[in-house]
Design brief:
Order of helices and strands: EEEEHEEEEHEEE
Strand order of the largest sheet: 1-2-4-3-5-6-8-7
Number of strands: 11
Number of helices: 2
Structural class: alpha/beta
Strand content: 35-45%
Distance between the termini: 36 Å
């Protein structure tokens, strides 16, 4: 199947592997090997993100990049794995970045849950920080728990947020 991304044609070949391989042996028609569950929009986001500022690959180079998406805030975010470093996952330019060495999790589903939870908590901390500045109020303690019936609880400048809000 031939797809077009940013006015460039790519040959798309479906695989059973959850990684994306890009083969630049033929620079006029590069080949993308991707899992069949990935949508064209996800592949587009991946190619756009990873092609920025990259030089043209040599003909013999085969690129193997891990790629998957995470559902968060009613959107699908592509996730890029950083080989080096040990930083917590973060959201930048509608893409989530995480260091492979930060989480020592082999199970993909558990990894996605942990990334989702970390980004959710960071977003809540950022939003609370903005509101604290605006209202000149300080929240002493912010916790995340599974609550049965409410989205959050407030008591004595302590805030507990329901983890199910993710």
């Amino acid at each position: 199947m031939i797809i077009q991304i940013e006015n460039k044609d790519y040959k798309l070949i479906g695989t059973n592997d959850y990684t994306i391989h890009m083969d630049f042996i033929n620079p006029e028609l590069p080949v993308i090997y991707a899992h069949s569950s990935l949508s064209i929009d996800e592949l587009s986001a991946y190619v756009k993100q990873f092609s920025k500022g990259r030089p043209v690959k040599s003909k013999s180079e085969l690129e193997n990049l891990e790629f998957f998406t995470v559902d968060l805030f009613d959107l699908k975010y592509p996730v890029k794995t950083l080989i080096q470093g040990n930083s917590a996952p973060y959201l930048k330019n509608n893409m989530i970045y995480y260091s492979k060495s930060y989480f020592n999790i082999k199970n993909r589903i558990k990894l996605e849950e942990k990334i989702r939870e970390t980004i959710f908590e960071q977003t809540i901390y950022d939003l609370i920080g903005k509101w604290e500045e605006r209202f000149h109020v300080l929240v002493n303690d912010i916790r995340f728990k599974n609550l049965k019936s409410s989205y959050f609880l407030v008591s004595n400048s302590k805030l507990t947020i329901n983890k199910k809000n993710i």
